[in-house]
Amino acid sequence: MPPPSPAAPAAPAKSKKRLVIVLVVVLVLLVAGGGAAAWFMYQRANAALEDDADAAAPAHKGKAKAEPAAPPTYLPLDNMVVNLADPGGDRFAQIGITLELSDAKASDQVKQYLPTIRNAILMLISQRSSEDLLRREGKEALAEDIRREVSRPLGYAVPEKGASTARDGHGSADNPVRRVLFSSFIIQ
Q: How far apart are the first and last CA of the chain?
């Protein structure tokens, strides 16, 4: 028998190292795959539980899925320049107004009454002082008054703040004039 070569004992040690590395890599892949599978199963079970809870909820609690609301229609009005009710009459306001309406049909209705609406808005603004309009509360009150004036020719009433919310012929809940937005507000 020939004498063992010095390289022969190193070969089994090298193959054991490779075997250990391969086993560690396989073990890591198994753990990662198992973790991913567990995570997906948890997500799926969680979604199923939420669906069951939604289905079991009574309809009177408002859990029913509502249809998305239609996007509003915006109607920008021409900028208005108005003298203010300050002593001396030397202050004026330049105001840009955009109306947020429920739909294009409401926009067409407002356009039919635009001269009347512009006149009412000009009269409203001319009754205010610069001191009133410089405060946020004054701007909010003006916006609500403008909404009331825009709604009036369309047959809708907007109750005064603090007034009874009793509905008139159409009722303010159906009012197509949702909000009055200021696109510019300059007082000089």
A: 114
Residue ranges of the alpha helices (H) in the chain?
Answer: 10-56, 104-112, 114-126, 130-134, 136-151
Domain interval for residue 115:
73-187
CB atoms within 10 A of CB 154: 17
Backbone angles phi, psi at 179, to 5 degrees: -150, 160
CATH number at residue 103: 3.30.479
Pair (168, 119) in one structural domain = yes
Pair 124, 165 in one domain: yes
Amino acid identity of residue 166, one-letter, is A
Please check whether residues 92 and 56 belong to one and the same domain.
no
Same-domain status, 92 and 174: yes
pLDDT tens digit at each of 188 positions of the chain: 555 555 555 566 777 888 888 888 877 777 777 777 777 777 777 776 666 666 555 555 545 556 677 789 999 999 999 999 998 888 999 999 999 999 999 999 999 999 999 999 999 999 999 999 999 999 999 999 999 999 999 999 877 765 544 444 444 568 999 999 999 999 99
- Residue 66 in domain: no
Assess whether 48 and 93 both reside in one domain.
Answer: no
CA distance 139 to 15: 84
